[in-house]
Amino acid sequence: MALRTEDIRSIAVVAHGGAGKTSLTEAMLFDAGAVTRLGTIEAGNTTSDFSSEEQKRTISISTSLLNFDHRGKKVFVLDVPGYADFIGEMRSALRVAGSAVMVVSATDGVEVQTDKAWEFAKEFETSTIFFINKMDRENADYNGVFEQIRADLTKNAYRLLLPVGKEAGFKGVVDILKDRAYIYDDASGKFKEGDIPADMVTDAHRARGYLVEAIVEDSDELMLRYLDGEDIPVDELIPVLRQCIAKCKIFPVMPGSATANIGVPQLMDLIVNYLPDPTAMRERPAVKEDREIFIKADPQAPFSALCFKVMVDPYVGKLSFIRVNSGTLTSDQTIYNVNRQEEERISSFKIMQGKDGVDVKEITTGMIVAIPKLTSTRVGDTLGKAGSKVLYPTIKFPTPVYSVAVDAQSRGDEDKLGNAVHRMLEEDLTLRFEKNPETNDNVLSGMGNLHLDIALAKIKERYGVNLNTRTPNVPYRETIRKSAKAQGKHKKQTGGHGQYGDVYIEFSPLERGAGFEFEDKIVGGAIPKQYIPAVEKGLRECMVKGVLAAYPTVDFKASLYFGSYHDVDSSEMAFKTAAHLAFKKGMTEASPVLLEPIMNVEVMVADTYLGDVMGDFNTRRGRIMGVDSLGRLQVVKAQVPQSEMFQYAIQLRSMTSGRGTFTMEFSHYDTVPEEVSKKIIAARQGLLAEEEE
Known about the structure:
Strand 32 (516-520), helix 12 (532-543) and strand 33 form a beta-alpha-beta unit. This protein folds into five domains: 8-280, P-loop containing nucleotide triphosphate hydrolases (Rossmann fold); 284-391, Translation factors (Elongation Factor Tu (Ef-tu), domain 3, Beta Barrel), CATH 2.40.30.10; 402-470, Alpha-Beta Plaits, CATH 3.30.70; 477-590, Ribosomal Protein S5, domain 2; 595-676, Alpha-Beta Plaits. Helix 10 crosses helix 11 (449-463) and helix 12 (532-543) packs across helix 13 (572-589). By secondary structure, the chain is an alpha+beta fold. It is built from 16 helices and 37 strands. Residues 6-279 form the Tr-type G domain.
């Protein structure tokens, strides 16, 4: 029987790495009877972390799609990686889920990736439950972390459940709205419902008062009755609470322990009872024929969906993961890719449980499923019925911040590299691969060294491509600081026709980024018109390798103002050669300097690490452009030479105990300091000498 949209819930489970979100998803699957064995991270047998790399490293690398049934509802779960290197997975999952469970460690509190997850959740207006995990650990502090959530993330967080006991004595939870306690029984492995412990009644009623005040603010009728002193019945509060959660006016907070399975059943109840079904969520913005529209979650409306993930398996093939935003579709129909304007044939739909899938014949609004073997569909594409013009905004991914140059170990590896990388880029849009035309490096870029290590491991495991990695060469350039005039005269007599070309050229500096200008100032026919292009061509050939260290020369003007020719011996080749001679002489006399790429860098860290980060930039020849406050975090803006940033992702992680994140993009080229320049030139000349031998 097909699912009803009203019976669907979809959540992204997000957290800072190590907070316990995969353990939580595993516990929910187990409690729902979706799996018969409670897997653990340490044993490498959880449902969501199924790849060999995830099992080897004991971390989540890629978003997994899971599902379970609870109290007559179908819950689709996206288990999202929590490490900064996989931030793209978090962004795409929160874009489609609509609701989230944000797992926060009771011992570590709000961390950097918690901040990032919350930033995305706010952007996408995501209804969110905060699950404060690891309440059975030493130094667990439920109220302290709750206050931190309110201070650093949102004032609209309210405790819906309280912990019974703490640390090793944590044994249950109290539902403050229903005035009931749920105590875990070690003997039976189940919860026993009962009255609130006497020593918790005062705290529970105080917390309930704060929650009820927040709820009645969304209902004029309830507010008036509340102000008149009436005790509003629970069955009247709950529908309004649902509305508040759907509108992101209230974010419930609850305690638990995923590994001890305490609080997990209550979380599952919150998900199905309080989080919105697709019809209660905000309408999805889209564009139709250059006009902004909003798509309502209606199973009777025309079909539309967004592809948010692609998984390529060398044996199974390609799986495209989609979230159905409107309409219904059966597997005997075709699907239309609106971005590519191509029809795709459907073989089946799969409801995924980690790596395994169950085929279904029909999908409807709110479902998150995988479709095998869609050939043209990419991440961010909109799918619909034939002829559809509805386009959802594509998913914006962060810019890569860490790069390595990759070299194939053999000719066979080189032949397979292109296909392997193409497949990887289909899956992961936070990866970039390009051939740098200036350095001739194949550069693979991503969100950090862990990200690239795993990408390279996948390339080897899946496609049998062995690669060596190294630090990319910096695309230095050369330019000049003053004007200089030079003659280039090429004269050669070989018995028959000789070679003769004679040019006078003035070389002048241009502003940064201007490139190259050639000016013909010949008057009186000193050089015939047909030879002028050869002079420019000769200069352009020389620009590829400058006079200092054979780096490209930029930002200068060459003015050809005089010369001479021979009626018989002059030729295009002779004038090209003369231009070469003038270039080498003129550039050497025009005060040549090296230029290096400068990057705009933004680092987000807590106050604790601000001094370390700023001091570190000074050692990297960086220039601090400003510091902005973002809640409890500081955003340091700086301009830093690219050569100083290749290992920064690793070094920042070490400097901030994994709590710092950064973005980086190219800004401009600037002059390399003389002492640094000498070292670069010496190293470059040594390398060139080795290549000539």
